[in-house]
């Protein structure tokens, strides 16, 4: 099955396509992609992952689509909103 793996930092983004076995989980696709070697700061124990913008567990079976690794929020959204006013 063909899936995408996405991760973005402030100044660079990664989006790659790869072939995974049909019974793969999100975690297996991430491991097969090699993204954890490219971005050693990724911590799957702390960061959320998802498919097409919907948060999912690492053991979720893939159908097709893009696996996304989300960065942790570093700024309080309410603080940013106040600064814009």
Question: Could you explain the architecture of this structure?
Answer:
The chain has helices spanning 26-33, 35-38, 77-84, and strands at 2-8, 13-19, 49-51, 54-56, 65-69. 13% of the residues are buried. It has 3 helices and 5 strands; from the N terminus they run ββααβββα. The model has no long low-confidence stretch (mean pLDDT 87). The protein has a 5-stranded mixed beta sheet with strand order 2-1-5-3-4, with helices on one face.
Residue share in helix: 10-25%
Q: Please state the overall shape, judged from the principal axes of the Cα atoms.
A: globular
Query: In what order do the strands lie side by side in the largest sheet?
Result: 2-1-5-3-4
Strand percent estimate? 25-35%
Mean pLDDT equals: 87
Please outline the helices and strands.
Elements (H helix, E strand, L loop, with lengths): L1 E7 L4 E7 L6 H8 L1 H4 L10 E3 L2 E3 L8 E5 L7 H8 L1
Parallel strand pairs: 1-5
Antiparallel strand pairs: 1-2, 3-4, 3-5
Provide keyphrases for this structure:
five-stranded mixed beta sheet; 85 residues; alpha+beta
Concise summary:
By secondary structure, the chain is an alpha+beta fold. It has 3 helices and 5 strands, in the order ββααβββα. Strands 2-1-5-3-4 form a 5-stranded mixed β-sheet, with helices on one face.
């Amino acid at each position: 099955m063909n899936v995408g793996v996405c991760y973005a930092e402030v100044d660079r983004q990664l989006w790659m396509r790869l072939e995974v076995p049909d019974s793969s989980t999100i975690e297996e696709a991430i491991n097969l992609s090699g993204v954890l070697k490219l971005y050693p700061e990724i911590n799957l124990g702390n960061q959320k992952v998802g498919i097409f913008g919907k948060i999912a567990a690492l053991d979720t079976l893939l159908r097709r689509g893009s696996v996304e690794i989300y960065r942790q929020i570093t700024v309080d959204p309410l603080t940013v909103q106040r600064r814009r006013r």
